[in-house]
Structures are given as structure tokens and as C-alpha cells.
Amino acid sequence: GENPVNVSETGLGYESGLRIIDVRPGSPAALRGALPGDILVGLHIWQANKPADVNYVLNHDDLYGELNPLKFTFIRGNKAYFFNLNLEPR
Fold it and tell me: Residue 58 and residue 67: Cα distance in Å, rounded?
């Protein structure tokens, strides 16, 4: 989603994140357990508080170098989950 979701009440050290609206069945994210409704709070070392944060990471010069695999951090309920995705240039 485009509007930040407040997650500070989870006590996990994150202020806000972006709600995942849809996860394509069979996609790498789905195969690693991402679900609609999860809240994306981080990509690699950066917080994902707003869409511009995600765009910054996905357009980073080193996306396919040192940032690969890219670590995703998301919250479901009151727990933080992590997974890494190997990225391939399009």
C-alpha cells in the first residue's frame, strides 16, 4: 500500500511500514512465505516507511552487486520475519 502503517506498538523497533496488498502465487516472495496483509518494514539495511524508500533501494546502483541477495523484513502480527531474495537484472 501507499500509506504508511504505524507498527510502533509491536515493540519490534520499527515505526512504520507498507502493507503488502497482493503476493503473486508461485512468486519468489510467496515461496518464502510473504502474505497479503504483511507489513514491509525493511529492505537490506534501510527502513521501508514509504514507497520512496522502496524505490530508493530498487533503483540503487549496487542492487545486483553487494545488495544481492536483498533482505526483506516484514511484520505479521507482533513478530518480525526475514527472507532473502536473489535478484536478477531484467
Answer: 10
Smallest CA-to-CA distance from 7 within 78, 83, 81, 73 is with: 78
* CATH homologous superfamily for the domain 4-85: PDZ domain (2.30.42.10)
- Its pTM stands at 0.89
What's the CA dihedral at 48, 50, 53, 81 to 10 degrees? 10
The count of C-alpha atoms lying within 13 angstroms of the C-alpha of 81, restricted to the half-sphere facing its C-beta, is 14
Q: Which residues contact 86 (CB under 8 A, 6 or more apart)?
A: 68, 69
- Quick one: pLDDT band at residue 80, thresholds 50, 70, 90? very high
Could you tell me which residues are beta bridge partners of residue 80?
75
- Domain ranges, ordered by start, for the chain: 4-85
The mean pLDDT of 41-55, rounded to a whole number, is 94
